[in-house]
Amino acid sequence: MKIAIAGSGAMGSRFGLMLQKSGEDVLLIDGWQAHIEAILSNGLKANFNGEEVSVNIPIVHQEEVHLDKKYDLIILFTKAMQLDKMMTDIKGIIDENTQVLCLLNGIGHEDTIEKYVPLENIYLGNTMWTAGLEGPGVAKLFGNGSIELQNLGVGQEENAKKIAEVLSNAGLNASFSENIRLSIYNKACVNGTMNGLCTLLDVNMATLGNTRTALYMCRSIVNEFAAVAKFEGVALDIPAIMEKIKSCFDPLTIGLHFPSMHQDLMRNNRLTEIDFINGAISRKGRKYGIVTPYCDFLTELVHAKEDILKAE
Amino acid sequence: MKIAIAGSGAMGSRFGLMLQKSGEDVLLIDGWQAHIEAILSNGLKANFNGEEVSVNIPIVHQEEVHLDKKYDLIILFTKAMQLDKMMTDIKGIIDENTQVLCLLNGIGHEDTIEKYVPLENIYLGNTMWTAGLEGPGVAKLFGNGSIELQNLGVGQEENAKKIAEVLSNAGLNASFSENIRLSIYNKACVNGTMNGLCTLLDVNMATLGNTRTALYMCRSIVNEFAAVAKFEGVALDIPAIMEKIKSCFDPLTIGLHFPSMHQDLMRNNRLTEIDFINGAISRKGRKYGIVTPYCDFLTELVHAKEDILKAE
User: Fold this and answer.
1) Residue contacts between A and B (CB atoms, under 8 Å)
2) Tally of domains within chain A
3) Average pLDDT over chain B, rounded to an integer
4) Which domain holds residue B204?
5) Average pLDDT of span B278-287
6) Same domain, B153 and B226
7) CB nearest to B308's CB, from A201, A291, A296
8) What is the ipTM of this complex?
9) Adjacent-strand bridge partners of B125
10) Confidence at residue A66, expressed as pLDDT on a 0 to 100 scale
11) What are the helix (H) ranges across chain A?
12) Are residues B151 and B232 in the same domain?
């Protein structure tokens, strides 16, 4: 199968490496020149569950993709704010048979993808795999994960299951989901509380959890996610989500970690994905006539912090 | 006139000093032992518009007030969160002839005072004077100011004007106001935007003003103040308040200053007055059936920051 990974950072590298190993014809596509050059010169280097590997794998800059070759499957793994530019750059490799699987964090990406791809070829997924980059061309790939995915187009269930099979054959542990939006919303509720609040208050999750107002704030934010999801026919289980959030506060499990948005903005001075988490709820809320003031205010505060820190 | 100043920090010291100088019988009341001892030993020392003065002025700890002496006028100048304790401590010096003038920052203090004083003896004021403390017993009193005040009780206008006269005789430039709540709300709108946002984002007012979302956030907060004020029959001029807020962002005037709440929490690790600014709007909103999510969330975030910094 001809598979392009659009956005080949840590997670894209993992998927590319594992899919090529299982015999697929993989192309990595990315926009970070130093990363591309490192992989072209030395191959993709990775610590893969403790074993040092070095793999030759084709990679190309997204602005230099050969537009005469079409792909069977494109897996989207960009940062949320880079998705639209990526789709513009690679639209030439998409034809009416190209299936596009979106594995980005956050919600509402299908609105962007639909501008370039017919609905029946779009698949949404949610991944529990993790990955890190140690530097250009060097990945750190530990632990296990899984993927759920579902077709957006009517009657494309069999194709969704085939994509899951290809991914599972590569060890990526993928399964067909009857309700991928529920999984995506569940994950977004955790990101939509932990990310923005820990970033703004400059704390880890356990310290946030120890404040007298953490649960009120999380609950108010989750209520807004649930109202928007309900309008889309997705019924969130709010008490279960609140339990999941409380478990993030536990210093004995993951409480001492800083969420990725904190790392992006406070440590690396990068723009955040807030517009595709809480900001997406605000946009959907405006569209549906649902007020989402906690998501609005949190998005505005994080943008203010980006400006103050001159994030790029 | 027998006048007690309940809360004799920087502003209370200014008022006590100026009122005693004009011939009034003044007692300072406070809860800070070191400050009391310094004034008992060395008098109140002050740099008063450039002149070093040292004045003997009676001061007593609020828990040791002589309860046999009643006062004609009590001027309240505590920190907002200390008001209730102060009223409990000094209720013995209040009788049916004691007038009580509240000059605290923030809104809604009359709800606390009414538990101790009949409505017809309560007066609300708004002061534009400033003052600072350099240490226990040492004040810095620069510049000019003014006071507006009004009776809360029906038919007490003449008494309000008499209080204004006593204050003006001491050089405090007081006048009777036909609509003190409007003045208080106008001031609270500036405090309710600059204080919480600059504290949370750890910036001065000019830096806040330079963020892309500052005006949206301020406007949303002011809208909530206006909705609550309207329910109380006070019509806020939102465009005029937004102009006032914009003027705070100007680095050529006061933009480079950090609001007092930032100094309290971020510099001195003290609990903030947020419950009596945005938090008061939230409480009033709940009472009136008006939603105030921006004030709710801002209050919760500032409380979280207090907990994180272990403020006291």
Assistant:
1) 76
2) 2
3) 96
4) 181-309
5) 97
6) no
7) A201
8) 0.90
9) B149
10) 87
11) 10-21, 33-42, 83-90, 109-113, 157-169, 180-201, 205-209, 214-231, 238-248, 260-262, 278-288, 293-308
12) no
